[in-house]
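Example 9 (inverse folding). The structure is encoded as follows.
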């Protein structure tokens, strides 16, 4: 049956119902049911999914990245792997919330590239990373209990470049680093008796800052504060507590 016929039948059905009510002495105009009153709430969600971060084509680090410009070339999780995280938020209105969150990003490991023999050492290098953020969440209802949402905020990404038996040339570009960046997200969410289930995409830009304190040949590198962008695709399950 065509969509046009379905619309005509639905309109006819509504007309019959309205006529029946009028013949029965019902009111000419029936009041629309009022929406339930909004209650502020706190929500807690757990996320699991995939984080894409292309270290294999990245040349801003100088330690981990493309073979032509970095000391190490990624061989484990070079383009991404599984991720997990959580967020805690407060719904000020039906359409606006503030949120805090944390995500673990996959470890990336690799061995020496051909040009880095001057910095040779035993073993390879590993980069560990996570980020925490705060964001505003804006929601738009689609149908009852189903919302589309967007997020915008700021995040801090922590990075740790580790090299066993670190040679002198790498001492200033390994260890702990990090950077601040904007955060953007979007997703869909279903609310079922205060249980929340949905899917989300988060985008965290990369950082290409240069570590000018590093000795040659790493004086144009960005480690330990540099890393490629991260794209997170997760499903989540949570619960909303009315307050």
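The amino acid assigned to each position is listed next.
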């Amino acid at each position: 049956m065509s969509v046009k016929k379905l619309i005509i039948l639905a309109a006819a059905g509504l007309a019959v119902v309205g006529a029946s009510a009028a013949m029965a002495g019902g009111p000419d105009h029936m009041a629309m049911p009022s929406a339930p009153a909004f209650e502020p709430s706190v929500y807690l969600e757990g996320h699991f999914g995939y984080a894409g971060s292309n270290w294999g084509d990245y040349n801003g680090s100088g330690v981990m990245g493309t073979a032509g410009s970095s000391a190490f070339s990624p061989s484990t999780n070079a383009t991404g792997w599984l991720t997990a995280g959580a967020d805690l938020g407060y719904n000020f209105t039906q359409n606006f919330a503030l949120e805090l969150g944390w995500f673990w990003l996959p470890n990336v490991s690799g061995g020496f590239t051909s040009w880095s023999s001057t910095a040779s050492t035993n073993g390879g290098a590993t980069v560990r990373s996570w980020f925490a953020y705060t964001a505003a969440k804006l929601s738009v209802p689609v149908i009852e209990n189903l919302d589309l949402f967007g997020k915008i905020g700021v995040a801090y990404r922590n990075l740790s470049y580790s090299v066993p038996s670190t040679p002198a040339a790498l001492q200033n570009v390994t260890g702990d680093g990090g950077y601040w960046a904007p955060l953007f997200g979007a997703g869909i969410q279903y609310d079922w008796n205060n249980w929340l289930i949905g899917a989300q995409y988060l985008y965290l830009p990369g950082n290409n800052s240069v570590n000018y304190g590093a000795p040659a040949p790493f004086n144009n590198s960005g480690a330990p504060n540099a890393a490629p962008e991260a794209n997170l695709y997760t499903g989540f399950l949570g619960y909303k507590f009315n307050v």
